[in-house]
Amino acid sequence: EIVLTQSPGTLSLSPGERATLSCRASQSVSSDYLAWYQQKPGPAPRLLIYGASSRASGIPDRFSGSGSGTDFTLTITRLEPEDFAVYYCQYYGSSVLTFGGGTKVEIK
Amino acid sequence: QVQLVQSGAEVKQPGASVKVSCKASGDTFSDYHMNWVRQAPGQGLEWMGFINPNTGGTHYAQKFQGRVTMTRDTSISTAFMDLSSLKSDDTAVYYCARWGESSSSPYIKAFDIWGQGTMVTVSS
User: Distance between CA B66 and CA B60 in Å, rounded?
Assistant: First the structure.
């Protein structure tokens, strides 16, 4: 079973700064099935990125995804106040779906 | 606008069962696999499995096999998740989430639409 490890656990940044979030898979995975979600306290998660690098509908272009194989990255180029949240990566393969443990992006 | 609307919060005793519903509107219910994901208080996301509304076929995460049953009623565009033999560590918010990949739209291999969540509390 694929294990996704996200780092860092918490990222303390100021509005306007760049955020770089990492998601590492325990073995090589297909980029087609790698996604990123944002979750704020209360509501359900929201899809940001699918296929490792495609932005979902309505997602601002300050969010971007990249990577392949075992290493994937979510980048937020300039943090807006509404971007402070928890971010999860997710992979589906061999009939098993797994989430990473999440990275919390907090205001410094 | 596609929406998933879930049933309300539940409080159950240990050993009981809970059934959560998820009603879809705004799109073809049978075209997309419906998944269930849960989140314990202060914890991350945990996938439970999915149902193919078209065929009724299911696939469950190994952890929940034998305890979870996913069904659907296509006449009312609603999916159901039944979890039995509840324990205190089943206390969580339960989400239904649509897998965005379909025969007509094969690109979004992720959860593109989520329900609002249903809080299930297991306590004596």
Answer: 9
- Per-residue confidence (pLDDT) for residue B26, from 0 to 100: 84
Q: Between chains, do B109 and A51 touch, taking CB under 8 Å as contact?
A: yes
Beta strands in B26-122 (DSSP E): 34-39, 46-51, 58-60, 68-73, 78-83, 92-99, 111-114, 118-122
What Å distances lie between residue B92 and A23, A88, A106, B56, CA to CA?
25, 18, 24, 25
Taking CA atoms, what residue in A is nearest to B43? A101
Q: What is the pLDDT of residue A94?
A: 86
Q: In Å, how far is A98's CA from the nearest CA of chain B?
A: 7
Q: Is the pLDDT of residue A78 over 90?
A: yes
